[in-house]
Amino acid sequence: MTDPALISNFQTGKGGGSRHHWSSVTMGCISFAVLLVAWHIGASLWPSRSLPAPLLVLQAFLRETASGDMGYHLGMTLWRVAASFFLAMLIGSAIGVALGRHRGADRFFNPWVILFLNIPALVIIVLAYIWFGLNEAAAIGAVALNKIPNVVVTMREGARALDERYGEMAKIYRFGRMDRLRHILLPQLQPFIAAASRSGISLIWKIVLVVELLGRANGVGFQINLFFQLFDVAAILAYTLAFVAVMLLIELVLVQPLEQTSTRWRRHEA
Amino acid sequence: MNKHPHVGAATKLKVDIEEKSFRSSNGEAITVLQNLHFEVAQNEFACIVGPSGCGKTTTLRILLGLDTDYRGTMQLSGLAHPRIGAVFQEPLLLPWRSVEQNVRLALPDHLKDTNLDALLSTLGLSRMRTFYPGELSLGLARRAAIARALAIEPDILVLDEPFVSLDEPTAQQLRHLLMGVWAERPTTALMVTHNIREAILLSDRIIVLSHRPAHVIGTFDIKLPRQSRTEQAKRDILRSFLDRFPDGGA
User: CB distance A2–B126 less than 8 Å?
Assistant: First the structure.
């Protein structure tokens, strides 16, 4: 019964894609290596405490790792990043989708969104510490609150772009609430969720550092403040680069593979 | 052949729409349907034909519960929550789910684990279960949409020009496939079409609508069983249809 002529050409070349992937990885490595060499040359030409050579930074990194400080403070910061990220994504998505679906609510709340988009992160952090005390909840809440307006704006666009016809199909076939969420809503919002996460994670970790600097007794931000007072630039760079590396690793082993899986259906699109 | 407990319990459809109008963006009201009354008997396959833009699709949308802003009633006797299997002009499969997932997602709870082998094989989809809709031709995607509509064991089957924009051999093959699966488990069916020959091939009854605002001009019953509808018989039916409806419902 099956007529092969009816199947559209679904076999697209995969070899080309992976070769492209590898060459971009190599290019990235070479690029970083060049930066490292330039840094080393610069530090050797103008030796100064404020610009330590890469090897000194590595030494500081090894020293901090051996003492266990590096792991502990990285862990604390990572947990704050994760907590405020999920909080911001969850609340921001809910508000964004609601505003995207209801024009009246959007018209009413849009000024609020603009207001919150433009309040400096520092103000929200300081106010959160004053109102709720120097505690973990205030810290994470302040970071999430900084990110929520961005998520709202992105997800509102996503909700406006929803295709009504899938919703109608779901209505006719009486999909349950969970099925609608999992199979109708989330797949359509996926590109917007990906965009919000991408821009979110880099913004959030920078704000987390400020929160830690101002009101926490651990985390990368706290350590950077400590070494700032000791004028230990090597240690500051060691902590910063270590955390950047952790974020890169998350991007490579978590975010990208996840995106690949969730857009698998797009790959063969005729 | 008859394994389904629901057969024989199919419903009779009664449509009584007093008026349905749309309001355009500049405030003008356009009456699309007026005094539209027709019935479809149990296990009857009825086709609606009429000039384009006369409100056929609007009628189906009301029937599907997608449009509730009208005056009148729409009854499927005997059932509070009838199950409706729908096939649209566009297949409307979820692009991010495979063919089989698309069919399974539509199944009501008590059928969730049902075996789809027979249905998918009749429709020639056995080897395409794991394909995504984007990997299918329009003809195959329509088959998947038909599989979804029939898998739920519907109380009524609603089809909106399901064979439009296919090349004629593919459309003809699909019509015969539909007839095949429908014959295995007859159910009340209502199909909108522009194609009189298609209506003559498939239906027990043709309902002819007028220009806007649409109402029923007349109905045309085809008593001859489908298997006896030879080429000659179909030509005769077409001639007598055109005698009664000279502009052919178009």
Answer: yes
Which pLDDT tens digit goes with each residue over A171-191?
999 888 899 999 999 999 988
Q: Which of A8, A165, A184 sits opposite B135 (nearest CB)?
A: A8
Q: Do B121 and A1 touch (CB under 8 A)?
A: yes
This model's pTM is above 0.90: no
> Which has the closest alpha carbon to B52: B153, B156, B164, B218?
B164
B197, B37 Cβ separation under 8 angstroms: no
Q: Please write the tens of the pLDDT for every residue from B168-193.
A: 888 888 898 888 888 888 889 999 99
Of B95, B121, B137, the CB nearest to A7: B137
pLDDT value of position B53 = 78
Instruction: Report how far residue A13's alpha carbon sits from residue A33's, in angstroms, rounded to the nearest whole number.
Output: 32
Contact B139 A6 (CB under 8 A): yes
* Residue A154: band (very low, low, confident or very high) from pLDDT cuts 50, 70, 90: very high
